[in-house]
Amino acid sequence: MPKYGRGLNREIVAAVNAGMILEPFSIKDVRKLIKAKNWKPEPSENHINVTLANGASDSHSITYKKYFLSVGDGQYKVNPHYKGNEWL
Fold first, then answer.
1. Can you say whether the dihedral through the CA atoms of 61, 62, 66, 69 is positive or negative?
2. For residue range 29-69, what is the model confidence (pLDDT) as tens digits?
3. Domain ranges of the chain
4. What are the CB-based long-range contacts (under 8 Å, 24+) for 22-26?
5. pLDDT of 72 over the 80 cut
């Protein structure tokens, strides 16, 4: 079972789809979500940065889901494939 809800990437996508996080979002917005969900222990800044970067990377493993699109300056959007998707 994932450490943070259904998995940090999936929780971020669900929060964007629910309007809890507005796009483009950054690590600061993810940190607010973590506090609102009261996840303990809280993931480190490095963990969140790596999660977002890997979720947006085209060069990461081909089996790693690309949940995000990087829009620069540490800002991300949800990949349109997962927008409004009720698969969560």
1. positive
2. 999 999 999 988 888 999 999 999 999 988 878 888 899 99
3. 8-82
4. 23/76, 23/77, 23/78, 24/71, 24/75, 24/76, 24/77, 25/75, 25/76, 25/77, 26/74, 26/75, 26/76
5. yes
